[in-house]
Amino acid sequence: MTDEFAGVAGVLYEFGLLKRYKRTGWLVAGVRDPESIADHSFRTAVIASVIAKLEGGNAERAAFMSLFHDTQETRITDIPYIGKRYLKAAPNEEVTADQMRGLPEPVAEMVSGAVGEYEEKASLEAVCARDADKLECLIQAVEYREQGHQNVQPWIDSSLAALKTPTGKRLAEEALRTGTLEWIMPVLNGD
């Protein structure tokens, strides 16, 4: 039992690397200090819960999958899209299986199940989580553009094209229509 808990502690430290690892695609766009993978995963989980709820799915399951959708990047890093053309990384399910090796079976099944469901794209919640991943990228690109980074349009275009759910598409339209701080004026005005 102690060895299993040592393994769990180890994977918790390993997943903590996601707070330090940066999303590398933004470096290509000229963003000097891009968001971390953990930053991305957090907002992706929030977005996934919203999309799933509005699509009639299980918001908690969609958010849960989103929390684990990029945990493999502790081992393979965040390979930018352009790099994926030349590099062949192990499938996410395989990396996750390695990460879960030696952990208590319930924990390993929980994480592997979430990653497997996300990668299979078979459930409504998985589709919502995948849309959330793309929508988070689009929203981040809009934020970077408002901060003066002009090379982010390809991220906006590719994210928009990848959306599948009606809710994801509507939210993307709205995100593109509004400014990133428009939400604050009603708060400041007491509305």
Give the low-confidence spans: none
Based on secondary structure, the structural category is mainly alpha
What is the string of SSEs from the N terminus onward?
HHHHHHHHHHHH
Total helical segments: 12
> Termini, distance in Å?
55 Å
Number of strands: 0
| Helix amount | 55-70%
**Which geometry do the CA atoms define?**
globular
Oligomer: single chain
Q: Could you tell me the mean pLDDT?
A: 96
- Sheet with most strands: none
| Rg | 18 Å
Report the sheet-strand fraction: under 5%
Can you walk through the features of this model?
The protein has 191 residues and is an all-alpha fold. 69% of the residues lie in helices and 0% in strands. The chain has 12 helices and no strands. It has helices at 2-16, 25-28, 37-55, 59-68, 73-76, 81-84, 92-100, 105-120, 124-146, 153-162, 166-177, 184-188. Helix 3 (37-55) packs across helix 9, helix 4 (59-68) packs across helix 9 and helix 8 packs across helix 9 (124-146). The longest helix has 23 residues, at 124-146. The radius of gyration is 18 Å and the shape is globular. The N and C termini lie far apart (55 Å). The mean pLDDT is 96.
